[in-house]
TrEMBL record:
PANTHER family: ATP-BINDING CASSETTE SUB-FAMILY B, TRANSPORT ATP-BINDING PROTEIN CYDC. One of its GO terms (biological process) is glutathione transmembrane transport. The chain crosses the membrane at residues 20-43, 55-75, 133-154, 160-179, 248-268. This is Thiol reductant ABC exporter subunit CydC. Keywords: ATP-binding, Membrane, Nucleotide-binding, Transmembrane, Transmembrane helix. It is a multi-pass membrane protein.
Length: 567
């Protein structure tokens, strides 16, 4: 029950609706029992008397009980569902409040498809907590106890049989099947997450799979995942059917023994035959309510797993730092930075140290997988170093809130998202206050003056080329206008002439700003104040372009290879 603690307290926040649902559910159950009991009594009375007045009154009572059962059942549904939907609203709000501070680092721990499955599917699963787990045993238990109390006025042994059956169906059977499900670990939630993640990857990579003729293989893997999900659902269904069958059997046996004991007492004269049919029908009516308890173990386990999966997403403590980055250009210091991605045995960065003066232009170079982008993530506080420290000016990055850090930076990443809308709406993400002239000027600076501000942008910028996306991202950075620039391969899809032109414009317009640029391209580095060379997560060289070339070390070798390839 520990996993469901949050859901339990959110449900109890709607205590008025929950209490009304229980009360009306209890009244609906009693009305159903009374309807069947009155029917049995009417049958017996009609066989033994010819008084029409008594029969008319009894028939009217049947209609009254039927009407009461319908009204109270409607009220029970109304209040229970209103409490459930309100609880789900609070749950979603609370979940996203805990999730938002963890972004974007959350994507390092969870695949997007699995994350979506948890946010949507697992939250939806918790709608059954109140409706199928929490209050059904309370209502059924109250109805059965009331039935026991009523039956005891006519026959104590018959009342004890009903009580034994009540204990069995309300306590023993649900506990048994819950334990049975826990041992079998039908992880439908996990397989649903796997299927969602595999489906998302299949859709994202469909074009590449088609090009490399690997579509059939990936499709077969997806079908296998779907089969496991389907099998898990089938197993859950079979288990629920078993529980329903056993519950129905116990209810039948309880009513059968009530009939048998009642017939015996009638035969020895200890019970009037007039009440036998009534008591049997009362027993049947009481146990008619136990049907929902058969599915209680399934819904309990589903809710428990869903709550656990949601907690796994937001179990990391949010960054509650309140520090801000100093305004203006600042020097950047890194002291023995080390970092390892979750579930990865190798170090992505290994004791990297450097100092970048304010107003300097620094390039970070190295082969793929050397740790360049990881270093940028640490500078952005998207990831937190396992060891070491980063300082901006005299302030430690660990004491700054991530959003306060991003607020002071102009950031261009390798992959930048573009929303369905227009060029203008995508530019205004960086600066809502910019006027049309400023927007057009930003486009001119990145050589996109041919694009109209009203030009449409499709989802993920599908109608833009790779180079246009990168230059549009750089236009955003121009519009933001901060003094610290962090650029990760900003022009990898742009031709060299255009990239060099934009860099020239950038450095000319912002001579006092601090630049940190990650690049695979070693051309044009003569204009940089400092070059950091990474390999296998270690900083193996640093210095000016001239110093590194004269040293004839690793960077010199990379430069010579590039010249041989492209000359």
């Amino acid at each position: 029950m520990g996993e469901l603690k949050t859901v339990f307290w959110l449900t109890l926040k709607e205590k008025r609706d929950v209490a009304l649902a229980v009360i009306f559910g209890f009244l609906a159950g009693l009305a159903g029992v009374a309807l069947l009991g009155a029917s049995g009594y009417l049958i017996s009375k009609a066989a033994l008397t010819a008084q029409m007045t008594t029969l008319v009154v009894m028939a009217a009572s049947l209609k009254l009980f039927g009407f009461a059962a319908a009204i109270t059942r409607y009220a029970e549904r109304l209040f229970s569902h209103r409490a459930t939907f309100t609880m789900l609203g609070h749950l979603r709000s609370g979940f996203f409040e805990r999730l938002a501070p963890l972004a974007p680092g959350i994507f390092q721990r969870h695949q997007s498809g699995d994350l979506l499955s948890r946010i949507v599917g697992d939250v939806e699963s918790l709608q059954n907590f109140l409706l199928r787990v929490l209050y059904p045993p309370i209502v059924v238990g109250m109805v059965l106890l009331a039935t026991v109390f009523f039956t005891s006025f006519y026959s104590l042994p018959m009342a004890l049989i009903v009580l034994a059956g009540a204990i069995f169906v309300v306590v023993i059977l649900p506990a048994f099947f819950a334990l049975r499900r826990r041992k079998k670990t039908h992880a439908t939630g996990e397989t649903r997450g796997e299927f969602a993640a595999a489906s998302a990857e299949f859709l994202y990579g469909f074009k590449d799979l088609k090009i490399h003729l690997a579509l059939d293989q990936k499709s077969a893997e997806l079908q296998e995942t779907a089969h496991r999900y389907e099998l898990a659902q089938q197993n859950e269904g079979l288990e629920e059917n078993r529980a329903q069958s056993v519950n129905a059997l116990v209810a039948f046996l309880a009513s059968f023994f009530v009939l048998a004991i009642g017939a015996y007492f009638v035969s020895i004269g200890e019970l009037s035959g007039l009440y036998l049919a009534m008591l049997v029908m009362v027993s049947l009516g009481a146990f008619e309510n136990v049907g929902p308890l058969a599915s209680l173990p399934a819904y309990y386990e589903e809710s428990r797993i869903a709550a656990r999966r949601l907690d796994e997403v937001v179990d990391e403590e949010p960054d509650n730092s309140t520090g801000t980055m100093p305004e203006g250009p600042v020097d950047i210091q890194a002291d023995r930075l080390s970092y390892r991605y979750p579930n990865d045995s190798r170090l992505s960065l290994d004791e990297v140290s450097f100092q970048l003066p304010q107003g300097s232009k620094t390039a970070i170079v190295g082969p793929s997988g050397s740790g360049k982008s990881t270093l940028l993530q640490l500078l952005l506080k998207v990831a937190v170093p396992w060891d070491g420290e980063i300082r901006f000016g005299n302030e430690a990055l660990s004491g700054m809130h991530p959003e306060n850090v991003w607020e002071r930076m102009n950031i261009v990443l390798q992959e930048n998202h573009f929303f369905s809308g227009t060029i203008e709406s995508n530019l205004r993400i960086a600066n809502e206050q910019a006027d049309a002239e400023q927007l057009r000027k930003a486009l001119e600076l990145v050589r996109l003056e041919h694009l109209e501000l009203s030009a449409p942008v499709y989802e993920k910028g599908r109608n833009l080329s790779g180079g246009e996306k990168q230059r549009l991202a750089m236009a955003r950075a121009f519009l933001k206008g901060e003094r610290l620039w962090l650029l990760d391969e900003p022009f990898s899809s742009v031709d060299g002439v255009t990239a060099k032109s934009i860099y020239s414009e950038l450095f000319t317009r912002h001579p006092q700003d601090t630049f940190v640029i990650i690049s695979h391209d070693l051309s044009g580095l003569e204009n940089m104040d400092r070059i950091l060379v990474l390999e296998n997560g270690r900083l193996i060289e640093q210095g000016t372009y001239r110093e590194l070339m004269e040293r004839r070390g690793y960077f010199h070798g990379l430069k010579k290879i590039e010249e041989q390839v492209f000359v």
